[in-house]
Specification:
single chain; 473 residues; alpha/beta; TIM Barrel; 3 domains; two-stranded antiparallel ribbon; 11 strands; 49% helix
Length: 473
């Protein structure tokens, strides 16, 4: 009802008006104030009606002032055509303290004129961090508005992965579960998705094509669902994956086997459809790193020659942006400047930011989270694990249950974390050479203004459908 929307919008006083399902911003400075903190808190922790209204209002505020979820597909195709080069896009998995972390990312992006950066969350992370897509999008957009950022916002589904064990038992149900997540995520504003069917690669088969066949065939099945779900005027950026992260390094021959099979099958099944814009490979990393008995992380020897060779083949032979490197956040600081040197298209960063949070929250809260893990994650503990290894590997599972406590940390703790995060993102953006990339985003990325109907018109708990009457900008 209009009355409910008026109540949610009243946090901004007369600076924001809602009339007939349309939002007018009278004074943009009001959005970059503590009033936004109140609105986004409602979007996360409010009752179902207030929560849905707050999420709708955040979306429409973004549409009104130019903070809009977008696809990076066109930018990546431009890179595949050789029109731009020399930087590596950071894709950042924001697991914990999402609003504060995203604010730091946007602050840094504004300071360095960065346009090419991605917020992402994986299928597994959505579950254990208690962040469904609609909440994640609302929090990221609110952070952008709070910091005064303007421009396309790239939000990505990372590792929308088919579980190979579940697939072996019931392939239709497992693939349909991924498709259901795609439907939810795209409706929320995820216009970038990494399809991960690399779990289905079967090295027991003879020949690379047969080894990769299930990988590319199931990826195309999911791709067709993505293309059917995307809003008018948006070509969602899609990535494929040829090798499970943490296994043997990928080869150019494997890349060709996957891409040749993928493109051949896509052309046959869906002629004229947009395909992939990037390809994830394995070159020596693992998710979260390898934790040693004392809790430290083992040194990682990443094969940058392999990464560069794979990126070049992806660009030259298939018009993709290049290769994507997962599991990069635990690499030593001295490694990051190498990614743009070998023209890596994108790297995924997650665990180190989680580590920084655990290192800087009050000890009492950390101890409480660890005690929760002793009881609730004990099945994940290996007999040989030290406490340090167990907590390092399992502590991500405590993020969801303690989300509210982390959101409500004392101001001085948040200020300390903000400084640590700002420094780290400034370092990473510098090493990955994404400073000044806003001009490329302006040149190549087509923004779409996608209004949504108010929540009460879509039904409680349902993301309102786009209003197709207004898609242009």
């Amino acid at each position: 009802m209009q009355a409910n929307l008026d109540t949610v919008a009243s946090v901004f006083g007369g600076d924001v008006l809602v009339d007939g399902g349309r939002v007018t911003v009278k004074r943009e400075a009001a959005l970059a104030s503590p009033k936004m903190d109140e609105l986004v808190r409602t979007a996360v922790f409010g009752d179902s009606v207030a929560r849905d209204d707050a999420r709708w209002l955040i979306w429409e505020l973004g549409q009104a002032v130019g903070v809009r979820p977008s696809s990076i597909h066109e930018l990546y195709l431009a890179r595949g055509e050789g029109k731009i080069h020399g930087f590596t896009v950071p894709a950042i998995n924001v697991r914990a303290m999402a609003y504060d972390t995203a604010r730091s990312i946007f602050r840094t992006a504004i300071k360095m004129d960065v346009g090419a950066f991605i917020f992402e969350i994986a299928r597994s992370e959505i579950a254990y961090t208690d962040q469904r897509p609609a909440e994640y999008v609302a929090v990221v957009l609110a952070a952008a508005l709070r910091e005064g950022f303007r421009g396309p916002v790239f939000i990505q589904g990372d590792h929308f992965q088919v579980n190979h064990k579940k697939f072996a038992v019931d392939p239709v149900t497992e693939v349909n579960a991924v498709k259901a997540l795609v439907t939810e995520a795209v409706a929320a504003g995820f216009y970038n998705i990494d399809i991960d069917t690399s779990t289905l690669v079967d090295l027991s088969k003879k020949g690379l094509d047969e080894q990769q066949r299930l990988n590319y065939e199931v990826a195309i099945d999911i791709l067709k669902h993505v293309r059917a779900s995307q809003p008018k005027g948006v070509d969602i950026s899609l990535g494929g994956e040829i090798g499970e992260v943490g296994t043997e390094n990928s080869t150019v021959e494997e890349l060709r086997a996957f891409m040749d099979g993928f493109e051949r099958t896509l052309k046959k099944q869906v002629p004229g459809s947009e395909g992939l814009s990037k390809i994830s490979v394995q070159s020596g990393t693992s998710h979260g790193g390898t934790v040693l008995p004392d809790g430290s992380i083992a040194d990682v020897k990443i094969d940058f020659n392999t990464l560069g060779t794979l990126s070049k083949a992806a660009r030259d032979e298939y018009g993709l942006a290049g290769a994507v490197q997962h599991g990069a956040s635990t690499l030593p600081d001295s490694a990051f400047h190498n990614f743009p040197k070998v023209e890596t298209a994108e790297i995924h960063l997650a665990t180190n930011f989680q580590t920084m949070m655990f290192d800087n929250i009050p000890g009492e809260l950390r101890d409480e989270m660890y005690e929760w893990l002793r009881e609730n994650a004990k099945d994940e503990r290996k007999p040989t694990d030290t406490d340090e290894q167990f907590f390092y590997k399992s502590r991500k599972k405590s993020i969801g249950p303690f989300k509210k406590q982390l959101w409500e940390l004392a101001p001085d703790v948040k200020q300390k974390l903000a400084k640590v995060y700002d420094d780290k993102f400034s370092f990473l953006f510098t090493q990955l050479a994404v400073g000044g990339t806003k001009k490329y985003v302006r040149e190549f990325v087509s923004e779409q203004k996608i209004h949504r109907k108010p929540p009460h018109e879509a039904g409680p708990g349902v993301i309102a459908a786009p209003d197709d009457a207004d898609l242009s900008d």
